[in-house]
Specification:
Blueprint (H helix, E strand, L loop, with lengths): L2 H4 L3 E8 H9 L3 H5 L4 H7 L5 H16 L3 H6 L7 E5 L5 E5 L1 H9 L2 E10 L3 E10 L6 H9 L4 H12 L5 H24 L5 H7 E4 L1 H8 L5 E5 L5 H8 L10 E5 L5 H13 L3 E4 L4 H9 L3 E5 L9 E6 L2 E6 L1 H9 L3 E8 L5 E5 L11 H22 L17
Parallel strand pairs: 6-14, 7-10, 7-13, 8-9, 8-10
Antiparallel strand pairs: 1-5, 2-3, 4-5, 11-12, 13-14
Length: 405
Amino acid sequence: MNPAEAKGARCGIDTVEIARLEKLVRDRTPDELTRLFSLQELQDAGNGPGRIASLAARFAAKEACSKLFPREIALGVIELSDFSTRRDAYGAPVVEVSARARAVMDRHRIGEIRLSLTHTETTASAIAWADPRITEVPWFGWLLYYLFPYRRRVVLENLRRVFGGYIPESEILKLAQAYYAHYIRFLLEFLRLPFMSGASRKAWMRIENMEVALRAHAQGNGILLLTGHFGNFEVSTVAGIGQFPGYRGLFHFVRRPLKPKLLNDFITWRTRRAGFGTLAKRGSLEAILDLLAGGAIIVYVFDQHAGKGNGITVDFFGHPAGTFKSVALIALSTGVPVVPAYSWREPDGRHVLRFEEPVPLIEGEKVGDAIRRNTRAYNEVIERMLLRHPEQWIWMHRRWKVTDR
């Protein structure tokens, strides 16, 4: 990592000859152009005499953005089409990125990419510079990290697996300390939740994109909610989903029993009291299929290690990890949609529960291959969700227990 990257500073510059871009556009069909430029970019460029120059500037912007991530471009993780440009309300250029590019930015801890575009009669140029994301560490996170270092070695090892080589060690240390602060907040919120009124819970929680889950459920075959230990998942469960009383009794959580047993009994009691069912991760396949046939919503926590009996080995952040195969198996056998959902805490203390579009089902002639490919796709979804707010994930968990493939 060079000194500029170590400080979080990244800059990409590119210049495009307008005549060459004109030839590129002339030689491509409309469908081929939409694979390079977004529909918004083609529309903003118009059809007048300045169209080619405008597209040239946008092409230079794509190249400049790609130069911020030479490794990912070389490996084919992202490509030029993952970056596009639009104008904001004041006419300034704004970068829009795909989900793939957003994940790359998050792994490099980049908040946003800013642009400057210009062109002459013969060339168009763009400068792209990346603004680093700032990790805020409250004093109590720092204190807990140093005075009560529970599983600190595991936390740091896991963070290095994901962010090593992408951000400096000092930033990894700050993420670890921010995670310990999240851990304290989690416990305090967990204790506070039972004493909150319904109105307070509703004000504490914001739901985003719920229509995606409702639309998927309206198909009539139930749905699988794919999630993980993001944010305060206890709050998002009770205070978030509880805002939809019409779905009371339809949600069932597949989870492992907790230790000690007293804690597990309390969580189970509170979950059922809130109107949610619970299912064991082992031996519940027939029950899950029956519930889905009746239109149930099965919530599957997918970010824990799975042993050989329940899982298969697929990559998670580039490292082999035992991963549950049951979600892929159920989706392939029933065709029910798999809808990702995750939560996080905002800086003001409020919580957000967000649903994403269903993960496309990957089918194949060989069942084993289809299970593996879909399971990897689910891991990719979990990766993207984790990277958005990495300090709010369970870094204490030994996710990578597999030593070979």
